[in-house]
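User: Hi! I'm working on a homework problem where we have to compare a predicted structure to a textbook description. Could you give me the structure for the chain below?
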Amino acid sequence: MSLAELLKQDFSPEFQFQASRSGGAGGQNVNKVATKVELRFNVINSVLLDEIQKNTLQEKLKNQINSEGELIIVSQEERTQLRNKSVVIKKFYDLLKKALFVPKKRKASEPTFSSKMERLKSKKIASIKKVNRRGIVF
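Assistant: Happy to help. Predicted structure tokens:
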């Protein structure tokens, strides 16, 4: 399955959300409202990913995956739980896209005709310069 097809799939049945109180400076609601959202996605038990993709994710995101095989993403930037939830989902898809992206192989190209001529011209100039350094032999 290609990366584009994978990203179009709906992963929401496999998401687990947990809300808690956000840290940092607050206001009147800071001690009452749970706005911090934590998304947990079990990479190992995912039905939507194949084995190769699971291994790639575990290798590339090993610092964000816990011992149970859960990818944990947290957001507490927004003031509401709903906005933080959408931010976390966006972060998940961005992480998935970045981790599973395979760069294209570089094709070696030949130098252009003009670049070859430019190189030969500079070599000729250097050669003439060195010939002129030789003194006149009597």
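For your comparison, note the following. The beta strands are 15-20, 36-42, 70-75. The first strand starts at residue 15 and ends at 20. Good luck with the assignment!
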